[in-house]
Amino acid sequence: MLAQDMDIPCRSQRGCWARYSAAADETRLVSIETIEAMPSNDPGELAATEAEGLERLSMLIQRLRPLDRQIIVSYLEGMDASSIGELTGLSPANIAMKVHRIKRVLKRWFGEGGLDAK
After folding, report:
1. Nearest CA-CA partner of 23 in 47, 6, 41
2. Would the CA dihedral through 9, 10, 16, 22 be positive or negative?
3. What angle do CA 97, 100, 105 make, to 5 degrees?
4. DSSP summary character for residue 91
5. pTM across the whole model
6. Could you tell me what percentage of the chain is helix, strand and coil, using 3-state DSSP and rounding each to the nearest 5?
7. How far is residue 64's CA from residue 104's CA, in Å, rounded to a whole number?
8. ∠ Cα 56 60 64 (to 5°)
9. What is the rounded CA–CA span in Å between residue 109 and residue 60?
10. What is the DSSP string of 16-34?
11. For the chain, which residues make up each domain, given as ranges?
């Protein structure tokens, strides 16, 4: 065993041991292309990207059927399932299920590229 390789105890209740290797701490070199492809941490760029995403999501919500649109908009405004149920005439359990399904549909549409996805 090398001087920089040693067994150290894990911080768990079982008292396990893990192998620590100094070689694992070495810095990895990456290409310039990899660095350029990494997302930016510029707050202005992140805000623009977020605004574009919210605009896309809003357009996707407009594609929903009227009842589904009313349910998801009410949910996004912070209403609970029983309050939405009073507005729509559906049970709170049905509202909760519809919210789950609508979110799944919106996620799929968003991932497929927006307004042209079916």
Report:
1. 6
2. negative
3. 125
4. -
5. 0.58
6. 60, 5, 35
7. 12
8. 165
9. 7
10. -EEEE-GGGGSPPP--HHH
11. 66-118
Give me the tens of pLDDT residue by residue for the chain, a chain 118 residues long. 444 445 444 444 444 444 444 455 555 666 667 766 766 666 666 666 788 888 999 999 999 999 999 999 999 999 999 999 999 999 999 999 999 999 999 999 998 875 554 4
DSSP 9: E
CB within 8 Å of 111: residues ≥ 6 apart? none
Residue with tokens 């998801």: 72
Total count of residues recorded for the chain: 118
Q: How far apart are CA 56 and CA 27, in angstroms?
A: 39
CA 40 vs CA 17, 59, 89, 110, 116: distances in Å: 38, 26, 46, 21, 28
Alpha-carbon Rg of the chain, whole angstroms?
Answer: 24
Contact 8, 17 (CB under 8 A): yes
Structure tokens at 63: 């594609």
